[in-house]
Structures are given as C-alpha cells and as structure tokens.
Amino acid sequence: MLVAVISDTHMPRGARRLPDACVERLRAADLILHAGDIVAEEVFEELTAHGPPLRAVHGNVDDLALCERLPETLVVDAGGLRIGMTHDPGPRPGRESRLAARFPGCAAVVYGHTHQPQVARVGETWILNPGSPTERRRAPSHTMLVLEIVGDAIAPELIHFS
After folding, report:
1. Ordered DSSP codes for 21-59
2. Less Cβ crowding at N or C end of the chain, within 10 Å?
3. Which CATH number belongs to the domain containing residue 38 in this structure?
4. Residue 14: its pLDDT value, please?
C-alpha cells in the first residue's frame, strides 16, 4: 500500500499550487493523508478529486467549514496499521515521545504545523511530518512523504521538490 502524506498546503493563496510531481504521487497513492492547514473547503474538494481516499485533520488556519467538517485528531487504518494524525504537535521539547504517547497502538503519528519535515522513531512508532509542498518557510525545500506499507512495516520516504 502507498500512502501520500502532505500538510500545510495553505491554498488558495496567490498563484500557489501543488507541484506537478506532488500531484502525480497523490494520484498514484492508495490513500492520501493531509495533516491540516488546507485552508479552504474548495481545496479539500480538489484534493479529493485526485482519486484515492483523502483523510485529513483541520489546522489552525483552516476556514470554519473545514474545522466543522474535519476532526482535530484522527486515527486511520492504512494497510492494517494504525496511523494517528494531528496538526499542531505542541512545544518542541519532548514532542516525539508526547506524540507517541498521545496515539497509543499507532505504528506512526503524522503531524504538520511546523513546515519542517521529520522522519524519526520513538520506540516502534514513526513520528512523521511531511513539511509542506507549497510553503517551505525555513525548511530547505518543499516536501511531502510517501509511506510504503508492507505487512506490519512502514517505509517512509521524504520527497523533495525544490
């Protein structure tokens, strides 16, 4: 199973759009996860139109319609493994262990908000931030994650666009 993971797309804003290589990976995935800050409900609908099922949490700048439609936290089944999702991971000190404890029994926890990609492990739990494919801020490049799930293993790959 392939899972495409994005966050902090912050669209629409000016001429901002997803990189073509990101869209290709979204369309090729079996599941899309978005860790918040989509911003507008019409962008959520555009992401849904790519084909694979889309599961998402709301972020701190999402419009009211998205905040009412999407949960703050979510646990999804991906190929038989549980993946926890939230947007805001809280303060930096202790973040990884706090996220792992917040989603017990999850093979991975996906978060956003920081725009800083992260691929780390706490015990048996992956702690994952896809960064942003559209607004890198202080990150060196625009990014997303692709997770390959085989059996009870997750292999995360950070994809750089620029």
Report:
1. HHHHHHHH-SEEEE-S--BSHHHHHHHHTTSS-EEE---
2. C
3. 3.60.21.10
4. 72
